[in-house]
Design a protein that fits this description.
Helices cover 15% and strands 47% of the residues. It is of the alpha+beta class.
Length: 202
């Protein structure tokens, strides 16, 4: 049988609470911006970049300086999209990366996945009966690239005793015989020696 879900440091939330949290975050951003000055660039930028029918699900800065911004938008086409913007000059933001991996957005967190002292972007999605995870790393010259993608019936973020993030992904193996309950196995992915390694636990 597929294992029951266990709590980790960062998990997804149901749609209604997630929307409420996103709305609260947007209000917090707006309040903070107004406290600094009414013409905060990120607020005017949002008004210019969103299209009719777009709904902001998440908005957060990706660095302490606020030069990189991550935004998840439920598009008018009905599929969520992650958009990463970088600030150019004093006021403008430029779109530098987009990602669409599922039918519903679950979570975005910043984690030092490879132990280099710099945060990567960890995004989780849902699609059909699957959960999906992607790790996006910033590169040279405003470039971003995916260093890990995978999916399964259940995706969990866990942490090793040393504090390194691991992805525990449970999937059906189809090893069961006729009449038996579905068989599942969990594969643990961790970044070691410059690449991801995997260990299967049945």
């Amino acid at each position: 049988m597929i294992p029951m879900k266990r709590r980790t440091r960062s998990t997804g939330t149901p749609a209604a609470p997630r929307a409420a949290r996103a709305a609260a975050l947007l209000l917090a951003v707006a309040a903070s911006a107004c406290a600094r000055r009414p013409d905060e660039p990120i607020l005017s930028f949002l008004g210019r970049t969103l299209k009719r029918g777009d709904r902001v699900v998440l908005l957060r800065t990706l660095d302490p300086e606020g030069t990189r911004v991550g935004m998840v938008v439920d598009t008018a086409a009905g599929k969520p999209e992650l958009r990463i913007y970088e600030r150019r000059g004093t006021r403008d933001y430029a779109l530098v990366h987009t990602a669409q991996q599922g039918d519903a957005f679950r979570n975005l967190s910043l984690e030092d996945v490879d132990g280099d002292g710099k945060d990567e972007i960890v995004v989780t999605w849902e699609g059909g009966h699957l959960e999906m995870v992607e790790v996006i790393a910033p590169g040279e010259g405003h470039a971003y690239h995916s260093i890990f993608q995978n999916a399964g019936r259940q995706v969990e973020k866990r942490y090793s005793p040393a504090g390194q993030i691991e992805f525990w992904i449970t999937s059906r193996t189809y090893d069961e015989r006729p009449g038996e309950a579905p068989a599942y196995a969990t594969t643990v992915y961790r970044f070691e020696n410059g690449k991801y390694t995997e260990t299967t636990k049945k």
